[in-house]
Amino acid sequence: LSMNQSRIQELAELDKKYFLHPTTAPKTHAEEGPKIMFSEGKGIFVNDMNGDSYIDGVSMLWNVNLGHGQLELAETAKEQMSKLAYSSSFIGYSNEPAVRLAEKLVSLAPGDLNSVFYTSGGSEANDTAFKLARFYWELKGKPQKRKFIALEDAYHGVTIAAQTATSIPNFHTFSNSGISDVFHAKPHLTNCELGDKSDPNYEGCIRDIIEKEGADTIAGIIMEPIQGSGGVHIPPDGYLQAVRELCDELGILFIADEVITGFGRTGLMFGVENWDVVPDLLCFAKGVTSGYAQLGGVLIRQHIRDTIVQYEGVLSHGFTYSGHATACAVALKNIEIIERDNIVVNAKMMEQELKKGFEYLKSKHPMVTKTRAIGLLSAIELYENSDTNKPFDISVKATAQVGEECFKRKLMIRPIRVGEGKNIIAIAPPLVINKQEIEQMISIIDESITAFEKILT
Ligand code: PLP
């Protein structure tokens, strides 16, 4: 064995023994060890310890927006860490990167989203938004407004309130620890939300749930502008506006979970901008630092801030790493690079290249039935028969198998396991991807589907 090989083997043994992995089957992992051990990356590529190079087709967890090996971010982290890695922001303490980033985020955010509360990630951001919403209603003299509505197929994270808002069943099988008072509505029903009771889907839509529970008990509605982990579901035009109108009409806060969609992913800086909607609270994480540091937060509209700053007690909420100096410095640099290098525009342009690739895949493979892309957030849906929209039998793990074939060919994509018999593959590469790299990705998907077709016959 080479030195490198024995090192990889040693790490695999240690991993099996000591590292309990998130969202991983523990029994299989304890037996088989890590699937891949990453060591370095550049742009859309990551290498494993064997030196094999993979295309990172989902930006890891949809977060590495600027791609791997971005040395300016590394340099920024080094500089900030060398001066002041971290300071508390409790009891009025502050630091320059946290303040500068707050100003920058506010300048980028739509409408009057005019201040920020920092967290270390997306789940914490959503839990914070829930607590801010309830706190706001308490201050408004309406403490009974405590319930939340989320959408079916939503993913909002795994802390206890976020887990409850998440509706993907897999995330409830682990210690279903949720809070009460969260309801799940059928997604993306514009007419229902606009009040059309004759719509056959009316029962179980947001408006129906509000009528049944009473608007005076509902604190907020949370949704991803475009659902990510649930299968990349893009709402129809008019839907988010309808929800915004509904919230205004009934006095309910609109919470947008932009953890995936923020910072250029959809071809605009924020996902809600695709429909010109301003939420009351906007949760972000992931792309704010392109994964180079752990940071999330909630952007807050002026009317909520105005209410909160009237409060004379202590806002007793916050994380040790709220306003982390290094994380905030990295985020600022990340945003500076996104703007300087026209990354958001690139995401929009590459959407067209992706769509061309998808049309090719559709024309060549009968199973490629539905495709969708908004910026570089995209998905392919596989069906047994695209003419009749006949899904695969549930015994056929089409998305998992195509995912495996892609992996063998050194492309990482994300098989989505939501919905019985549904076979969705999510594709969301780093926003720095170019035309030729998209073609490379499409050609691997093409070969992988061909390989799967051979397995089927
Ligand atoms: N919200 C959305 C839409 C997400 O996709 C995620 C993570 O995938 C989260 C929240 C949770 O973020 P985190 O894993 O940083 O807690």
Low-pLDDT segments, ≥5 res: none
Proportion of beta-strand residues:
15-25%
Indicate the overall shape.
Answer: globular
Mind describing the biggest β-sheet? 7 strands, mixed
Report the radius of gyration as a whole number of Å.
22 Å
CATH secondary-structure class of the largest domain: Alpha Beta
Cα end-to-end separation: 39 Å
Share of helix, binned: 40-55%
Give the ligands present: pyridoxal-5'-phosphate
InterPro entries: Aminotrans_3, Aminotrans_3_PPA_site, PyrdxlP-dep_Trfase, PyrdxlP-dep_Trfase_major, PyrdxlP-dep_Trfase_small
Organism: Aquibacillus halophilus
GO molecular function, one term: pyridoxal phosphate binding
Protein name: Aminotransferase class III-fold pyridoxal phosphate-dependent enzyme
Report on the architecture of this protein.
Pfam families: Aminotran_3. One of its GO terms (molecular function) is transaminase activity. There is one protein chain. The chain is an alpha/beta fold and 457 residues long. The chain folds into 2 domains: 36-69 and 343-456, Aspartate Aminotransferase, domain 1, CATH 3.90.1150; 72-340, Aspartate Aminotransferase, domain 2. It contains 16 helices and 15 strands. The strands form 3 sheets. It has a 7-stranded mixed beta sheet with strand order 4-10-9-8-7-5-6, sandwiched between helices. Strands 1-2-3-13 form a 4-stranded mixed beta sheet. Strands 11-12-15-14 form a 4-stranded antiparallel beta sheet, with helices on one face. The chain is globular and about 65 Å long. The protein starts with a helix and ends with a helix. The structure holds pyridoxal-5'-phosphate (PLP).
